[in-house]
Amino acid sequence: MPAPLIEMRGITKSFGAVKANEAVDLSVAPGEILGLLGENGAGKTTLMNVLFGAYAPDAGEILIQGQPVRINSSADALAAGIGMVHQHFHLAPRLSVLENLLIGIPGKSGRIDRVGGLARLAEIGREHGLTLDPDLPVSALSVGEQQRLEIVKALFRGARLLILDEPTAVLAPTEVDGLFAALRSMAAQGLGIIFISHKLNEVRALTHRCVVLRHGRVAGRVDTPATTTSSEMAQLMCGHEIVPPARGPSTPGAAVLTLDGISTSGHSGTVLRGVSLAVRAGEILGIAGVSGNGQRALADVISGVLVPGAGQMTIAGRAVSRFSPRGVQALGLGRIPEDRMTTGLVTNLPLADSMVLPRIGTEAFSRKGLLKPDAIRAFTEEQIKAYDIRCPGPMTRAGALSGGNLQKALLARELAFDPKVLIVSQPTRGLDIGAARFIHEKFLDMRARGCGIIVIGEDLEELLMLCDRIAVMYEGRIAGTLDSADATVARLGLLMTGAGQAEEAA
Amino acid sequence: MSALFEQIFQVGFLAAIIRIATPLAFATLGEMFSERAGVLNLGIEGIMLLSAMTGFTATSLSGSLWLGVLVAMLTGALMGALHALFTVALGLSQHVCGIGVTLFSSGLAYFLYRLIFGQQSVPPSIKGFQTLPIPVLSDIPVLGPAVFNQFSLVYMAIIAIPLAAFVLYRTPWGLSVRMVGENPRAADSAGVGVIATRFQAVILGGALMGLAGAFLSMAQFNAFTFGVVSGRGWVAIALVVFGRWDPWRSAGAALLFAFVDALQLRMQASGLGHIPYEAFLMLPFIFTIVAMAVMSRNAVAPSALLKPFRREER
């Protein structure tokens, strides 16, 4: 094995009382793709931020080609040949591709070196198949192209080690293949790559070696990811065995939610173009698709936030005449919004307030225009107990809860009213395996009790495990619906890119 | 009305437009640099007033016009640095600090002026900038006397516009300014000093605002009065939006405003005397509001405008 390109020894980093990293050792050799695996909050991103100079470690050292170095800023990291592709891209949307590349690069006789930049961009494009139009504004690029730009940006600055933080989270399956091909090409030319992920199959497919973090510590090292089973790695990740909940056969009843030719017009986001679908009682329908293909508009229409321009919707057999969150709720719809923190609840108020927010004017929680604080408190306490929501009490500030506990709270507040239809977006995003497992079980419970559930998600594995049928959205339309028995990641991926049409399985 | 049209194409009228546009162009470019870096500078009105005062005073005491200009620019730069200290280094509200800078600068200008010149029945004046005809060019019919027979500060403004565009769009520093105004995190991860770049842009902007103030007290009026700026700073803020944060468009916006202002001055003087002159005074401002409503509805401000930057710490 060649000498390591970079080595981290005994890295420890605390935030207050929380040890985000403790005595972590890690090394990457030239030409090696190292997987960094771990649950949310395991300390992967913190570790990489230490390497990239965003945080100073409390203890430990970093060696580059055997020489100890101090990395105090991203500028230091760049100078040391470390490039990072963050989860949230660091790009200026209104500036051109080339301008985003040239930022921070000294010019030629006081001017931006456009000619040199173009040449370098073309060279990188040839070497790794990473081509980009230099004069397009970044806002005109797809998410996949923006990621490509971030990679090119790192190479442009002469990075010899590339860190990618959950790069596949934003990509369609076909784009993932393209990314992997580019990464393999870079590794073949002697670059070191750190690939951060919690998706086991990707780590197994791509990486040469793999380090698993748990609670900030190295939980294990896998030298042959390709031949190690996913369940072995999952066990390293969460410290115990994880059995996915079994989805029994279902006997769907009558349709509880139907959409017929729903179209929207709007000034922001993707519009819906004639979406028709039906969810039956006791059925889980998945909505897959690359984000930004109308999923948000669909969720907003169903939850009454967005009034469609055309089309009909029924809930439990009754036509929705007035689209408003209260209106659809009265017909039996429950909703768990995509973004817990901004649209789910009010982070600065007590949890109890958020728990009753959607029903604040109803008889259960108010009388003659006055709130019933005891009822609100009792309701919240009841849910905290029933759903094992870890918090000091109902008056805790909602924003202080962890993601998993917030999601449980949101689930509790809807399920307490026995909805006929439940719509959820990204139900387990950002949750660890244990919390995700809990949410999944609750969905399957509701399904067994005859609730119709729509799950909008980007994680295909999750949808395949959970759903009876999966509809794929592409550019505001339903590109196809597959029975989960026939659905595979590959077939869904094809639909997600707009290629091919599947038969309507409804 | 035909008399009015004749007046429009008079040399004097065109020259007046250019003259009125000059301080607006400096101020607008100054505000534009600041906002492009993500910092709204509502201190502009006060900075212009204080610079007009310090420039006038320096010239009045030393007899040197260019020393006055330099002092005015330094005053502007200093006040820009003060605004940047509050908004960039300390990350305070740009609105509140900007208004604070305006109030402070205005008060300071009045105070220092009284302290230096005392209470006088006739305000002191200086021999300000004289027109400087440019050989050959000033002989071009109509355009020559209108554009090339002006104060040297006017020529500076004419040069400043393409220069600002060059700096902003063609130099690494200009790219850094645009980047910290759009996505400071991106700039930071590329090794660009966000705080330093913002400081520089706000200070440069302040110096340009100082130049605008100097023009008012040292070329246009040759005296300092408390009403010497009279809202031109606020107008510049609107013109930046109208000009979509672009040097060329901003300068164009300044010219357009100057055209309407010159027009209303002529209308006051023309035969429309039965209308109170205050009605004409309102015209340029009404025009600005209408023009902004029509032209700037889709204008998009720099994404990071008003947002202080702090390195992420948990």
Which terms would index this structure?
heterodimer, A: 506 residues, alpha/beta, Rossmann fold, 17 helices, 32% helix, 24% strand, globular, disordered C terminus, B: 314 residues, mainly alpha, two-stranded antiparallel sheet
3D architecture notes:
The complex is a heterodimer of chains A (506) and B (314). By secondary structure, chain A is α/β, with parallel strands linked by helices. Chain A has 3 domains: 6-238, Rossmann fold (3-Layer(aba) Sandwich), CATH 3.40.50; 244-332 and 419-506, P-loop containing nucleotide triphosphate hydrolases (Rossmann fold, 3-Layer(aba) Sandwich); 351-412, no CATH class. Chain A is built from 17 helices and 22 strands. Chain A has helices at 44-51, 74-79, 97-102, 114-128, 143-156, 173-188, 200-206, 230-238, 295-302, 325-330, 340-344, 351-356, 373-386, 403-415, 433-448, 460-466, 489-496; strands spanning 6-15, 18-28, 33-38, 59-64, 67-69, 82-85, 161-165, 192-197, 209-214, 217-222, 255-263, 275-280, 284-288, 310-315, 318-319, 333-336, 366-367, 370-371, 421-425, 452-456, 469-474, 477-483. In chain A, strand 14 and strand 15 (318-319) form a beta hairpin. Residues 502-506 of chain A have low confidence and may be disordered. By secondary structure, chain B is an all-alpha fold. Chain B has a domain at 9-119 and 148-229. Chain B has helices at residues 2-8, 11-36, 44-62, 65-89, 94-117, 143-147, 152-170, 172-182, 184-189, 194-220, 232-242, 247-269, 277-295; strands spanning 132-133, 149-150. In chain B, strands 1-2 form a two-stranded antiparallel ribbon. The termini of chain B are far apart. The chains are: A alpha/beta (506), B mainly alpha (314).
CATH C-level label of the largest domain in chain A: Alpha Beta
Order of helices and strands of chain B: HHHHHEHEHHHHHHH
Distance between the termini of chain A: 55 Å
Number of domains of chain A: 3
What share of residues of chain A is helical? Answer: 25-40%
The CA-CA distance between the termini of chain B, in Å, is: 68 Å
* Number of contiguous helices of chain A: 17
**What shape does the CA trace of chain B take?**
globular
Main pleated sheet of chain A: 6 strands, mixed
Kindly state the number of beta strands of chain B. 2
* Arithmetic mean pLDDT of chain B: 91
Question: How does the major sheet of chain B shape up?
Answer: 2 strands, antiparallel
Number of strands of chain A: 22
Examine the secondary-structure arrangement and name the CATH architecture of the largest domain in chain A.
3-Layer(aba) Sandwich
Low-confidence stretches of chain B: none
Strand order of the largest sheet of chain A: 6-7-8-3-9-10
Largest two-chain interface: A-B, 31 and 25 residues
This entry's quaternary arrangement is heterodimer
Helical/strand content category of chain A = alpha/beta
Indicate the mean pLDDT of chain A: 88
